[in-house]
Amino acid sequence: MNRQLQGVTLLKQENDDTYKADPRSRAKKGHPGRRYFMVITVLGVLFLGYIAMANDLKPVRLGTKAIDTLALSLSIQSRFYVVVIDAGSTGSRALAFSFYESVFGGNLILEREHYFQTKPGVSAYADKPKEAAESLTVLLDKVKAVIPQSEWQHTPLSMRATAGLRLLPGHKAEDILQECRKLFEDSGFQVSKNSIAIMEGTDEGIFSWFTVNFLLEQFSIHNPGNTVAALDLGGGSTQVTFSPDAAQEKKLDGHIYSVNIFNHNMSVYTHSYLGMGLMAARKEIITHGMKLNNINPRTPVELRSECINPIVSTEWNYGGLNYLVKGPVHGAHKLVKNQNYAGGEVDRPIVNFPECLKIIEKYVNGMKNKPEGLKDHKIYAFSYYFDRATEVGLVDPFAGGVVQVRAFLKQAKEACDYPNTDQPFICLDLTYIYVLLRDGFGLEPTTKLYLYKKITGHELSWALGAAFNIIQNGL
Length: 475
What we know:
Layout: E1 18-21, H1 37-46, H2 48-55, H3 62-73, E2 80-87, E3 92-101, E4 108-118, H4 129-134, H5 137-146, E5 157-161, H6 163-166, H7 170-185, E6 196-198, H8 201-215, E7 229-233, E8 237-242, H9 246-251, E9 256-261, E10 264-274, H10 278-286, E11 301-304, E12 313-318, E13 321-326, E14 332-337, E15 345-350, H11 353-364, E16 379-383, H12 384-391, E17 401-404, H13 406-416, H14 426-440, E18 448-451, E19 454-455, E20 458-459, H15 463-473
Parallel strand pairs: 1-9, 2-5, 5-6, 7-16, 11-13, 16-18
Antiparallel strand pairs: 2-3, 3-4, 7-8, 8-10, 9-10, 12-13, 14-15, 17-18, 19-20
Helix pairs in contact: 1-3, 8-15, 10-14, 11-14, 13-14
């Protein structure tokens, strides 16, 4: 069965800077549901009330959704699937998407997704490529459990590795990819020579931006000014993507791409900052001023940092290397009032926040090509932005929420002022996020950030955008 979707090209076209995305237009040839259109319509009306109660549907979409649901239940319409594996620097995630065509107009409908993850990421197996591939078997097994076996051979399976593999030496990254290709070829899913690759940062940014705005239904308005900016903070890199106005576009020359959304041309700025992801930045901040040569991967490297509390001693693995991270030998302390009835003061070890801040500011200020005009847009931030915000209570871990940039500074100061061995990096991470937003991206302390992990039940990540691209172009 031909499942190609017309007009959903998100990847850059050869020899130009054009992206296209039109998931509503799908090939009509050979569509079986249209032969039964009248039957579906009549049955849909009869069962409309029942389906409405069962699905708690919004009135504006009630009729179409009800008929589509009935068509699926009668097997007149059929689902199809796409599986995307996000091989990130800190973990691998598998997203299994199910789609169907709407009876009315043939629009492509995202029905649901299944999300699975495992840690560490494949880049942690830099010297053990076979183990890197084996780490993905648990994800494939879980995906197979939610997709009918009869559909496996028709279901595209794709893996895109992000900054974790980009930061590895080329031959090590390729060895891992080769072992993963062997695994995929024996999986039973539909694969090709292009199923596995290292993803370009540009594609990562565009796909994330598409996902956010698609789920928010911003594209239906056909006005670039109504789209939101997308900030994705990964482990190895961070992406900033938004649709600039004419004045901003001139200042952002070199990172502007033409995107066609539902036959409406838009200019989109995207930039991927390699090395500015949370884990990559953490490593550079902790090793500030240190030279690390000829490291034995089996022996932890001891590091002392001004951004770590003096009483902390914790093991940390990043990029296939082991570190023993500690606070400074002669760390800062402060006298605080004892909270018990005896009164008096206690000596509390703390992070020297001003000193830590200087180190982080120096690192962030090394950024080039800063995103001029970002602060003028409504901003949705996810991944590690959301994770760290939930860990310190800034937003609800399930519902998400809206905070101002300065909230990260307030929480950073509080975290740095308290010895927390359960979250040894929380002071550093929060301070870095604040400085990145303020100095790296030019946001004001009062700029609002919309922090969410999901929208309408779907994960905020680049994977959905990648799935649309696969439907259109194949693997």
